[in-house]
Amino acid sequence: MCDLGHHHHDASFGFLVDTAEIRALIAETERLSASIADPAARVEALRPAFAALLAKDGWLPDSCAGPDDSSKMGGGIGQYALYRAADGSLCLFSLVVPPGAATPVHDHLAWGLVGIYRGRQDETVYRRLDDGRDPSRARLEVSKRQQLGPGEFYPLLPPADDIHYVRTISDEPSISIHLLANDTACVWRHRFEPESGVVTPFRSGYANAPCPDQGASGA
Ligand SMILES: [Fe+2]
């Protein structure tokens, strides 16, 4: 579940939250991943199953729906693993962003779907202008801004639109649900400072599960 604290390694993978709704989405994702080779077509085919999860109540425990005061992203932002494939090929997680708080500008490095479950978010997406050859620098410009509310979602198909940040614009925390084809919080990703162009390695971590090389404490 989403309790903070100590975890046995084996409990950190698979269905950390075991509900019929989550199992249905993961089963559909595995089925479509096996039958559709093109990520864009696969993500498109996944839309109905993802929309169905966002539309349902009662499957997300309160323990995965609140802020995390020890957040590595700052601002009390909580990232809670709901499902993690043991081989790192797929994960489902909730991201809780308190009112007024914003994530760092970051990338995801995997295809998937991201949608709003509760609250509202303002999303700013960046386009990369340089060739990415220098791992410590990036030239970015804003390519898109949009506001999203409950039930609304978008596909991720890197490298297109893979760099963004979100801010909660509702009075309640926003909760977004992410289905992504990696172990997102444990992968070394990138954090961007658009004004200065500085890029730094970034690993967000889950609030409720350690990364494979972190040991059992989750520290
Ligand atoms: Fe994101």
Q: How would you describe what is shown here?
A:
By secondary structure, the protein is α+β, with helices and mostly antiparallel strands. Helices cover 15% and strands 32% of the residues. The chain contains 2 helices and 12 strands, in the order E-H-H-E-E-E-E-E-E-E-E-E-E-E. The chain has helices at residues 20-35, 39-55, and strands at residues 14-15, 78-84, 91-97, 105-106, 112-118, 121-128, 140-148, 153-156, 163-168, 174-180, 189-193, 198-202. A 6-stranded antiparallel β-sheet has the order 1-2-3-10-5-8, with helices on one face. Helix 1 (20-35) packs antiparallel against helix 2. It is globular, with a radius of gyration of 16 Å. The two termini are 18 Å apart. The model has no long low-confidence stretch (mean pLDDT 93). The protein binds fe (ii) ion.
